[in-house]
Design brief:
The strands form 3 sheets. This protein has a 4-stranded antiparallel beta sheet, with no helix packed on it. Strands 5-4-7 form a 3-stranded antiparallel beta sheet, with no helix packed on it. The protein has a two-stranded antiparallel sheet with strand order 2-9. With about 160 residues, the chain is of the alpha+beta class. It has 2 domains: about 5-45, no CATH class; about 65-155, Jelly Rolls (Sandwich), CATH 2.60.120.10. The longest helix has 16 residues, at about 5-20. About 20% of the residues lie in helices and about 35% in strands. It has 3 helices and 9 strands, in the order αααβββββββββ. The protein has helices spanning about 5-20, 25-30, 40-45, and strands spanning about 65-75, 85, 90-95, 95-100, 110, 115-120, 125-130, 135-145, 150-155.
Length: about 160
């Protein structure tokens, strides 16, 4: 099972690699609190950092792409209405258990520590909190066009 810290690190590395011009390790060395002024120290520090690819999906081609990172809290027993996302969505369940259904796939259950992907413009039929007493909380990375809605209604 992947811990929240491991998932957050993996998602941060993924986004950094996606939107940087250089490789992720160079970005890590430049921004990491472990960074040292010489290359030998950098290599020792990098040896203690490990990244595991949990999911990899292509991004939709769009002008002015922008990434939004949000937490989504779903009240006990709540169900989202049908909608679409204009760009890809990467979700990680922080707390609780949900049932999620995105066309054309059947509904799937997810619990804390699991993650899923939603392709652009597929109808997201429902996201339901399976608990009647506790909220579910998700960490969402969504890509969309800057200045335009990332989520639109669907039937």
């Amino acid at each position: 099972m992947v811990t929240r810290r491991e998932m957050n690190s993996a998602l941060a590395l993924t986004l950094a690699a996606l939107f940087s011009e250089g490789p992720a390790p160079a970005l890590l060395r430049a921004e990491s609190p472990l960074a040292q002024p010489n290359a030998q120290s950098d290599m020792r520090n990098m040896a203690s950092v490990a990244a595991q690819t949990l999911m990899q999906e292509p991004l939709a081609e769009m002008p002015n792409p922008e990434v939004t990172v949000i937490t989504l809290t779903v009240a006990p027993g709540a169900i989202s209405p049908p909608h679409k996302h204009t760009g890809p969505v990467f979700a990680y369940l922080l707390e609780g258990e949900i049932e999620n259904q995105v066309d054309p796939d059947p509904p799937r259950r997810y619990k804390a520590g699991e993650f899923f992907y939603e392709p652009p413009m597929h109808v997201h039929r429902s996201l339901r909190n399976l608990s009647g007493t506790k909220p579910a909380k998700l960490l969402i990375f969504e890509v969309g066009e800057k200045g335009k809605p990332f989520t639109i209604g669907a039937k």
